Every structure is written in C-alpha cells, then in structure tokens.
Amino acid sequence: PLAMPSPNSIEASQKTVGSPASARAKRTLAMPNEGAVIAGALGFIALLTLHLALTRTLNWDEFHFYRQILEYQRGEPLAVFQTLHVTVFGWLPAWASSGVDAILIARLIMLGCAFVTAAAIVCIAERFANRNLALVAALVWLASGFTLQHGWAFRTDPIATAFLTSALALLLRARVSLEWMALAGALVGTAGVVTVKAILFAPAFAGIAILRWSEAKFTLTAALRIAVVPLVALATLGALIAWHSSHLAPQPTSGPSGFVSSSSQAMLFAGWPVYWIHIPRWALLSIPAFAALCVALTQLAKRPWAEALALAGLIAPILALIVYRNTLPYFYPTMLAPVAAASVVGIAAIAKRYGLRVFAIVTALLGGAVWMIEPSSRIEQQRELQAAADVIFAEPVGYIDFPGLLPGHNKANTFLSRVGV
C-alpha cells in the first residue's frame, strides 16, 4: 500500500509550486530560446537587407564603378589603385541587359561580402564574449542604419571590409603559424589594392598583434610569425599592383606613388569632420550600435591590459571621422565593422541588465524602422533613362554629367565627386 502524504508535506509542496522561483521558472520556459530569438533577428535583418539591395535607388558611386569596367574594356586609361574590380567584374556587362541590371547583380555579390564581414565580426567578438553575444554584435552592425542602406552597394568598400575583417579574425583567433599569418597578410595586401582606405584599419591590427604576442609570453618566435602579416601584406600589395597595372592602358600620371600622394592629400586632413552632419544621423538610425559603443568604452578599464589595448585598437577606426575627409554614409559600414566587434563588451553589460533577447529584438525592430522609412525606389526610371539613350544614340556618344549615368556612352568630363569638383 502507498503511504499517504502528511499534511506538512502537502503544505510544503504547495508553497514550492506557488513560490516566486517557480513562477520565474514557468516564465523562463514560456520565453523563446535566446539562440532562436537571435537567429530570428538575424534572419529578419538579412531579408530586409536583401530587399534594399534589390530595390534601393542606384547611387552615383555605383554608376562610376560600373562605368570604369566598360572603360577598361574599351582600353581607356585607369588608375592602378581602387580599380581592381574592373578585372574581377569584367564578366558583368555580358550578364545584364542594362547598366542598372549589371549593378544589381554586382550588389548581390557585395551583399555576400557584407555577410562575410558579419561572420568575421562574430569570430572576433567571440574572443571577448560568448557566442550569442558575438552574434548580436554582428546583428548590431547589420541593423545599423547606414549598413542597411549602404553596406551592400557596388563599391570597393564592401570587398575591402570583408578582406580586412577576415584578416583581423585570422590574426586574433587562428594559430600563430606561418601559414595562417601569411593568409591574413595576403588578405590585407589585397584590400590595400582594392582601396587605399585599408590603412585606416592599422590600429586594429596593431592592437590585436600585441594581444597575440602577450598570449605567447612575448617570445621572439611569436613576434617573427606575427611580423609575417605586414611583410606578406606588402609583398601581396606589390605583386597585385604589378599584375593589375600590366592589364591597364598607360595613364599620364606620376605612377602609383604619385597616386598615393595625391589621394592622401585629397583624403586625409585633421580637424572637425567635413561631413559631421552624418554623425548624429548615424546615431539616430543606429541607437543600439551607438549605445553598445558608449557602454563598451566604459568597460575597457575592467579588462586585462592586453585585451583592453586590442579592444581600443578595434574601436580606433572610428577616429577616421577626424582624419579622413569623405566620411559619407557609405563609409560608415567599413569604419564601424571592427567597432561593432569590440562593442560586444558593451552589449554584454547592457544584456546583463536588460536581457540579451530584449536587446536583440529592439535592434531588429529599429532596423525594420529604417527599412520602413526608405524612400520610393527610382530604379525603373534609371533603367528607362539608360534604355532611351541607347535607342536615341545607336552609337556611343560623348556626354557630360555628374555620376556617369550612361555607362555605354563616353563620359566627357571627370567624375564629379567633391574631389572631382
């Protein structure tokens, strides 16, 4: 026969079932799994990003970069730096019926580069926090207003950002061996040919290099292996310049060194940001990213000195605002990729108080708000203008405009960026 429970045991069990701890357990069981919430938020933002990549009105830079491909194929002279895409994307004109459609195809590849950058952010951030926090760091970057709007555009920036963040991830997480350090250096050197803005990532590489050297007890062997990164980067840079320039028509300039010098004078300065108005715009369209960065700055002193130095180096590219001239919205996704990885320590502090699920959901919803306020697309009108020009002028003609809207024709004036003007 079964023993009957005593009144005292019944009362105790009722207290246990009705206790606050039991209620909290029920609520915990009812809430979605943290990983599922983060995965859902990432998937949601990825879909919004794909939609914008296929529908957002083409930007002036995108016409410029596509026009360079056709100029290269016509044998017209081009600069060595920042034109590596003309050979990599030489197949684009044959795959599209118009310049607009070619740029849309290229955008999908840039979107792939953005997702590679997001994966690299996870890899970097996971060195300083757990996997879920690292995933949210990538979410914060993807959902930031300017990344949603420009992180996939057909420019050199998404390509270089993917290479540079991947190199940072290798330097930070891979075994300090000659093979892995050489691969990281090759990525850096390639990014340098893609765009000279790669130099702005130097503090991030320096901080991580010191962290890895400290982990290896400052041995000479580790120092020599880490030094392989800049050495291979320079070798890759030189080899790619030589290879690429051999495929280009001669340009009446002072050569690569002259280009770097003139570019530096045009790009670099010191003082109040030229395009300062975009800083509050970014903060408003990227509240979670801005909050995570601010909190992260307060967390550096709580970390071991080598980690704090590495995190500070990852945040340092944001100083490009006071030394790099063209800090327009399209540059922010590049500048803030390493910053987002370092901001994981700020996300951790915020999540400790408010919960990581809540932070991820708010980040995704605010990204959705950026998507909702996007102006109507003008892609169809841009496509019609290109088609009309081709119908009216069966043979290529010279024309004067601002961005290079008619890639099949001959732009008779320079590209009218701020430097061009």
Radius of gyration: 25 Å
Total strands: 2
Number of helices: 22
Mean pLDDT: 89
Give the overall form: globular
Cα distance, first to last residue? Answer: 97 Å
Q: What class do helices, strands and sheet pairing give?
A: mainly alpha
Helix and strand element order: HHHHHHHHHHHHHHHHHHHHHHEE
Helix content: 55-70%
Briefly, what is this?
The chain has 421 residues and is mainly alpha-helical. It has 22 helices and 2 strands. It has a two-stranded parallel sheet.
Descriptive account of the structure:
- The protein is mainly alpha-helical.
- 67% of the residues lie in helices and 1% in strands.
- The protein has a two-stranded parallel sheet.
- α3 runs parallel beside α8, α8 packs parallel to α21 and α12 (202-215) packs antiparallel against α18.
- The longest helix has 27 residues, at 99-125.
- The protein is globular and about 65 Å long.
- Residues 9-18 and 25-29 have low confidence and may be disordered.
Name a few traits of the molecule:
single chain, mainly alpha, two-stranded parallel sheet, globular
List the helices and strands and how they pair.
Blueprint: H1 7-17, H2 20-30, H3 34-55, H4 60-73, H5 85-88, H6 92-95, H7 99-125, H8 131-143, H9 145-150, H10 156-173, H11 178-194, H12 202-215, H13 220-226, H14 228-245, H15 255-267, H16 278-285, H17 287-299, H18 305-315, H19 332-342, H20 344-354, H21 356-372, H22 379-392, E1 398-399, E2 410-411
Parallel strand pairs: 1-2
